[in-house]
Amino acid sequence: MGILLQVLDTAKTAAQGAAAGVQQMSLWDLLQKGGWIMYPLYILFVGAVFVFFERLIAIRKASRIEPNFMSIIKDNIMTGNIISARNLAKNTDNPVARMIDKGLQRIGKPIDAIEKSMENVGKLEMYKMEKNLSILTLIAGIAPMFGFLGTIIGMLQLFSAIAAKGELELGEIAGGIYTKMITSATGLIIGLLAYVAFNFLNTQVDKTANKMEMASAEFIDILQEPTK
To answer: 3-class SS at 44?
Structure first.
């Protein structure tokens, strides 16, 4: 019983010492303890941040639509001023305007043909907005794997050191384990951030797609109304 209490006291002292060491280290020093496997994780993090902001800017730009855009298009079509409607669509830089411009180009053809041409433009615009989003899903998948790989390598090194020396102090073992867990924690955090970023951007793309569908339906309705 006395030996068991002594072991527990030693473990408690080692844990307290490790915790004190973590508190004294800066975040950068703590990350450096993860070893060389942290550098691929840094690259994945930078890549995720770059793709997120690049896509966020592009998607927000695509989603900006003037509230009166379709009203002006409708007025021009109803008065037979197709040229003015096309000029407005050409000078407006967003997916809805490009889709409407394609529909204006097809005026005079069957409604089905107009809808099909606008649908093709819509698919192309969706592809442009979703470009590089798959990179975030890739990072979300492989970042935790890199983290686990770093932990496994670290544990192998630790056990190799134990085998070479025959024995290690409990404090050394505890310190070695927590430093090797840094890679797993970092990988999981990066993967989680990439996953959240992907879903957020995907939601923004869906909102823009809904605007495109509403504009397309409104345009077709306008064409089916009698002109003045």
So the answer is: helix
Burial of residue 56 (number of CB atoms within 10 Å: 0-12, 13-18, 19+): middle
The C-alpha atoms of residue 190 and residue 30 are separated, in whole angstroms, by 16
Buried b (16+ CB within 10 A) or exposed e, 96-116: bbbbbbbbbebeeeeeeebbe
Q: How far apart are CA 90 and CA 208, in angstroms?
A: 19
Dump pLDDT digits (tens) for 32-48: 555 667 788 889 999 99
pTM of the model: 0.73
Instruction: Kindly give, in sequence order, each residue whose CB lies less than 8 Å from that of residue 77, ignoring residues fewer than 6 positions away.
Output: 85, 104, 107, 222, 223, 227
Average the pLDDT over 122-134 and give the result. 90
Mean pLDDT score of the chain: 78
Report how far apart the first and last C-alpha atoms of the chain are (Å, whole number).
100
CA distances from 159 to 48, 52, 164, 171 (A): 34, 40, 8, 14
Domain boundaries, the chain: 2-60+133-215, 66-130
